[in-house]
C-alpha cells in the first residue's frame, strides 16, 4: 500500500467547506487520495458535520460564503467545547494581510490563498495534522499522568493511615505493657502483706482465745473482768473471728483478678510484636475477649466453642489485633441484644478461628468491598473502615486468609484460617 494513502479507516478526515462547486470538486478529488473527505457548501451544514459522530480532524474553510461567512463559522466552532480543538485552515481568494491577520486572530491555524498549488496545500494540511496528533497525544498523556498522580496520592494516604494506625496500636501496646508492669509491683506487695496479715491475725486470735479462757475460768479479777466482758460483747469478737477470714479471702480474690487483667494486658500487648513464636491462639482470644469485654458485655452474650488446636507459629499480638477488630465489628453489628460466638478448629495444616454474630448482617453488594481500605457503613467518627483491611494484611502476612459468610438480618461469620507452620517469607 502507498504510504501516502493509508488504510481507509485510519485516514484522517478533512471537512471541506466552500460554496463554489468547482473548488469542492478540485480540492475534493485531490484530497480524497490521501484523506477521507467530507464536504459542506455552507456554514450551517459545516457546523452540523463538525458536530457529527464522524468529527473531522481538520477543516478547510472558505471565508466568503453567502449567509454565514468563514469567520462566523470559526467563531461558532471555537465557542463549543466539542469543536474548539479542531484545527481550521482558511482557504480564500481574499489576498489581504488584514484579512489573514483577522483569520489567524480568530484562531485559524493557517491561512492559504486561492488558487494554490495542491502539493503545498497537502504539505500544510499534513503539518497541521501532525501538530494536532502531537497535541492530542500530549493531552492524553496529561490525563494519564493526572490519573497516576491521583492514584499515588490515594496510595500514600492509605499507607499514611495504616502507618498511623499501627503506630497507634504499638503505642497502646507499649502503654499497656508499661501500666501492667507498674501495677504488678504494688499488687505483689499487697498480696504479700495480706499473707503476713493473716498470720498476724491468727496470732492475735490466739491471744484473744487465751484471754477468753482466763475469763471463763474466773482467773481475772474485778474490775478488769467486767470491763473485759463488756468490751468483748461490744466489739462482737465472735463475729470478727468469722468475718475477718472472709474479708481476707475476698481481698485475695480481688487481687487475683487484678493480676489476671494485668496478665491479659501483657499477653494482648505482647511487647515484641515482630517476633514470630509458637503460640496458643486460645490464650490470645481469651486475653482479647477480656480486654474488650466492657464493650460487649452489656448487649452481647459471648459463647466460646473451642476445640483442641495445636499451637501455631505467628506474631501473637498482631493476631490479637485481628481478633479484636472482628469482635468489635461483631459487637457493633448487634443493635440491641445478641450473641457473639467464638469457635476454633483445625483441618489439614491449618487452624481456624471463627467469630460469628447474629447481628444485622452484610448487604450482598457490600461483601466484595469489605476489605477495601476506608470502606465503612458506620457513621463518621465511628469507623474509619480500616479494621478489616489491616486484618487481612496481617492474616496474609501469616500466609492465611479470611473468609466471610453473611445473611442480611441474620448475622455474619468471619473465619480466619492460618497455617500451623510459619510461612516462607515472600
Ligand atoms: N460482623 C459484621 N456485621 C456486619 N457488618 C460488618 C461486620 N464486620 C464488618 N462489617 C462491615 O464492614 C465494614 C468495614 O469493616 P471495617 O472493620 O474494615 O471498618 P469499620 O468497622 O467500619 O471501621 P474501623 O474498624 O476502622 O473502626 C463495616 O463498616 C461494616 O459495614
Ligand atoms: Mg471495624
TrEMBL record:
PROSITE patterns noted in UniProt: HIS_KIN, RESPONSE_REGULATORY
Enzyme Commission designation: 2.7.13.3
Keywords linked to the UniProt accession: Kinase, Phosphoprotein, Transferase
Catalytic activities: ATP + protein L-histidine = ADP + protein N-phospho-L-histidine
UniProt-listed CDD domains: HisKA
SMART domains associated with the record: HATPase_c (SM00387), REC (SM00448)
Keyword Transferase: yes
Alphabetized PANTHER family for the sequence: HISTIDINE KINASE, SENSOR HISTIDINE KINASE
Protein name: histidine kinase
Species, as recorded: Methylomonas koyamae
Amino acid at each position: 500500500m502507498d504510504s501516502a494513502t493509508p488504510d481507509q479507516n485510519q485516514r484522517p478526515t478533512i471537512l471541506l467547506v466552500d460554496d463554489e462547486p468547482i473548488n469542492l470538486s478540485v480540492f475534493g478529488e485531490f484530497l480524497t487520495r490521501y484523506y477521507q473527505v467530507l464536504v459542506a457548501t455552507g456554514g450551517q451544514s459545516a457546523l452540523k458535520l463538525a458536530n457529527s459522530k464522524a468529527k473531522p480532524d481538520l477543516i478547510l474553510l472558505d471565508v466568503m460564503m453567502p449567509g454565514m461567512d468563514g469567520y462566523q463559522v470559526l467563531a461558532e466552532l471555537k465557542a463549543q467545547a466539542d469543536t474548539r480543538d479542531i484545527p481550521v485552515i482558511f482557504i480564500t481568494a481574499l489576498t489581504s494581510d488584514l484579512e489573514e491577520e483577522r483569520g489567524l486572530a480568530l484562531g485559524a491555524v493557517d491561512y492559504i490563498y486561492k488558487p494554490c498549488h495542491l502539493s503545498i496545500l497537502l504539505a500544510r494540511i499534513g503539518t497541521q495534522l501532525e501538530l494536532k496528533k502531537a497535541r492530542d497525544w500530549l493531552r492524553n498523556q496529561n490525563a494519564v499522568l493526572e490519573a497516576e498522580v491521583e492514584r499515588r496520592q490515594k496510595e500514600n494516604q492509605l499507607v499514611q493511615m495504616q502507618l498511623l494506625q499501627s503506630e497507634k496500636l504499638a503505642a497502646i501496646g507499649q502503654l499497656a505493657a508499661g501500666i501492667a508492669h507498674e501495677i504488678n509491683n504494688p499488687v505483689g506487695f499487697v498480696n504479700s502483706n495480706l499473707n503476713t496479715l493473716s498470720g498476724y491475725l491468727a496470732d492475735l486470735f490466739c491471744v484473744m482465745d487465751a484471754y477468753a479462757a482466763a475469763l471463763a475460768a474466773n482467773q481475772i479479777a474485778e474490775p478488769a473482768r467486767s470491763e473485759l466482758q463488756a468490751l468483748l460483747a461490744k466489739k462482737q469478737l465472735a463475729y470478727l473471728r468469722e468475718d475477718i477470714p472472709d474479708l481476707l479471702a475476698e481481698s485475695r480474690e480481688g487481687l487475683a483478678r487484678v493480676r489476671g487483667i494485668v496478665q491479659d494486658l501483657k499477653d494482648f500487648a505482647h511487647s515484641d510484636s515482630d517476633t514470630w513464636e509458637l503460640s496458643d491462639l486460645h490464650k490470645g482470644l481469651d486475653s482479647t475477649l477480656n480486654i474488650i469485654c466492657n464493650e460487649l458485655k452489656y448487649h452481647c452474650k459471648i459463647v466460646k466453642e473451642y476445640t483442641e488446636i495445636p499451637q501455631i507459629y505467628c506474631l501473637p499480638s498482631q493476631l490479637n489485633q485481628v481478633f479484636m477488630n472482628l469482635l468489635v465489628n461483631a459487637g457493633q453489628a448487634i443493635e440491641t441484644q445478641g450473641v457473639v460466638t467464638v469457635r476454633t478448629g483445625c483441618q489439614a495444616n491449618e487452624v481456624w478461628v471463627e467469630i460469628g454474630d447474629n447481628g444485622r448482617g452484610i448487604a450482598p453488594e457490600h461483601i466484595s468491598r469489605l476489605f477495601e481500605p476506608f470502606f465503612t457503613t458506620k457513621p463518621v467518627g465511628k469507623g474509619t473502615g480500616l479494621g478489616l483491611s489491616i486484618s487481612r494484611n496481617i492474616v496474609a502476612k501469616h500466609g492465611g486468609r479470611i473468609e466471610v459468610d453473611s445473611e442480611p438480618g441474620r448475622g455474619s461469620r468471619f473465619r480466619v484460617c492460618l497455617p500451623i507452620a510459619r510461612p516462607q517469607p515472600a
